[in-house]
């Protein structure tokens, strides 16, 4: 035994060094385990482009996974070879990425949004209103900290969003009072936790070492905390995490069903609807791009294809008869 860490431990160390999320860590480790098992526990250093291609092909052909899932598996393997095993990868160009189908996002009308939101109550309803009213991704809403809600400026500051970028977006005026009342209840819960010797939260990027008292401070608390305590899978610390996204997803699915809307809508559909409705109202596409946090305006341009213009503003010949 030379004391060298196991492969997955090396993967976890590199992921944490680069400040990737716990979700990315779990997904990457799972794909790497599946890759090694698929090739009868052969060490990745003994494999290359051919083995990667066979594995990805099996996912597509035998397991019938989507292009995005196939590319996720490839990303995990490339991370393994480049970042963990420090391989030069001369064969990288040989690995073919699955082409994602060009699909238009599902978008709800303003009336459909109103129907769904009317069926969502409490903190889940408040989260849903922020998804639509501020164009947030679900995890961006759930990871909001108290300090990043600016009532004076009607702004939300999204920290470490997709691509590890910060951005500022709008805080809907209609949400301000319900959000104030919600935070008042959360503060009482936090003060009670402090009195019982708890009340700390997870801080990213080792900020707790730089600011030792910060995990107990009100400003760092989650806007939408979980009801109970849980164990941090990385540190083992028992503390209060944010609200579980599955609660929002399940409640939203029930609301869509109850509303009678036939579209395959998810909480993320509210973000799509936010962008589309802003563009329909005449908002500049660059502003929408900034609010959404898109790196390239081409990503935002997809919403111009689903604007309410009746088939790209073309008058059907049937309507001329």
Automatic annotation (TrEMBL):
Q: Does the keyword Magnesium apply?
A: no
The alphabetized UniProt keywords are: DNA integration, DNA recombination, DNA-binding
Q: What PROSITE patterns has UniProt attached to this entry?
A: CB (PS51900), TYR_RECOMBINASE (PS51898)
Keyword field contains Protease: no
Query: Which CDD domains does this chain map to?
Result: INT_IntI_C
Q: Where is the signal peptide?
A: none
Taken from the record, one Pfam family name reads Phage_integrase
Can you give the residue ranges of the Tyr recombinase domain?
103-316
In this protein, which residues make up the domain named Core-binding (CB)?
2-85
Q: Which InterPro entries is this protein grouped with? A: CB, DNA_brk_join_enz, Integrase-like_cat_sf, Integrase_catalytic, Integrase_integron-type, Integrase_recombinase_N, Integrase_SAM-like_N, Tyrosine_recombinase_XerCD
| SUPFAM superfamilies associated with the record | DNA breaking-rejoining enzymes
Q: Which family does it belong to?
A: Belongs to the 'phage' integrase family.
NCBIfam families attached to this UniProt entry:
integrase_gron
Q: What's the protein called, per UniProt?
A: Integron integrase
* Source organism of the structure: Stutzerimonas chloritidismutans
């Amino acid at each position: 035994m030379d004391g060298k860490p196991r492969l997955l431990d090396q993967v976890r160390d590199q992921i944490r060094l680069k400040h990737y999320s716990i979700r990315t860590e779990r997904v990457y480790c799972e794909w790497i385990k599946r890759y090694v098992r698929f090739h009868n526990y052969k060490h990745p250093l003994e494999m290359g482009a051919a083995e990667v291609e066979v594995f990805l092909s099996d996912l597509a052909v035998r397991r019938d996974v989507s292009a995005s899932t196939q590319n996720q598996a490839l990303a995990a393997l490339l991370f393994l070879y480049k970042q963990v095993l420090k391989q030069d990868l001369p064969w990288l160009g040989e690995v073919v990425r699955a082409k994602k189908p060009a699909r238009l996002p599902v978008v709800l009308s303003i009336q459909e949004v109103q129907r769904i939101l009317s069926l969502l109550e409490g903190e889940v309803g408040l989260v849903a209103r922020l998804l639509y009213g501020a164009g947030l991704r679900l995890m961006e809403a759930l990871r909001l900290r108290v300090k990043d809600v600016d009532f004076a400026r009607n702004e939300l500051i999204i920290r470490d969003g997709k691509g590890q970028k910060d951005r500022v977006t709008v805080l809907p005026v209609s949400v301000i009072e319900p959000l104030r009342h919600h935070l008042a209840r959360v503060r009482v819960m936090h003060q009670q936790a402090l009195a019982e010797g708890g009340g700390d939260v997870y801080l990213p990027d080792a900020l707790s070492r730089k600011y030792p008292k910060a995990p107990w401070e009100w400003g760092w608390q989650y806007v939408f905390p979980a009801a109970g305590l849980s164990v941090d899978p990385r540190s083992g610390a028992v503390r209060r995490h944010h609200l579980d996204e599955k609660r929002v997803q399940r409640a939203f699915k029930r609301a869509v069903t109850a509303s009678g809307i036939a579209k395959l809508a998810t909480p993320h559909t509210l973000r799509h609807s936010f962008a589309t409705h802003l563009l329909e109202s005449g908002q500049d596409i660059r502003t929408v791009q900034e609010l959404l946090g898109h790196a390239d305006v081409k990503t935002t341009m997809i919403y111009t294809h689903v604007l309410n213009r009746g088939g790209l503003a073309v008058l059907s010949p049937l309507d001329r008869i």
